[in-house]
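Need residues for this backbone.
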């Protein structure tokens, strides 16, 4: 049986990053058809040339082959945004999220009046 954990990757980067933005359409096309809708973006911010992307949860239970496959593809997605300058700085901000399902006790939902 397995426990449910929702894993996602969210990225914000800049349209001025060296080498340009990753080819997300090509990455999406490389995925199994069932996972393609989970890759969202590019979504341009209204200011300062920022662009955001997400790879949303696949819905499978931990330990299932589909979950492992989703984890592998999410890792590949995050790797598209790993450019670093010589000083270690970057335009790529990558966040891995784990939430919901059976994982709720470790990451409780915020109060209903949460506004941040």
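Answer:
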């Amino acid at each position: 049986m397995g426990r449910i954990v929702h894993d996602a990757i969210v990225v914000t980067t800049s349209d001025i990053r060296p080498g340009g933005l990753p080819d997300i359409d090509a990455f999406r096309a490389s995925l199994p058809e069932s996972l393609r809708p989970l890759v969202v973006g590019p979504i341009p911010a209204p200011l300062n040339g920022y662009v955001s992307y997400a790879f949303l949860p696949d819905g499978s239970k931990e330990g299932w082959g589909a979950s492992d496959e989703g984890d592998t593809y999410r890792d590949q997605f995050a790797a598209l945004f790993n450019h670093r300058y010589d000083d270690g700085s970057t335009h790529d901000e990558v966040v891995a999220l784990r939430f919901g399902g059976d994982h709720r006790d470790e990451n409780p939902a915020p109060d209903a009046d949460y506004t941040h």
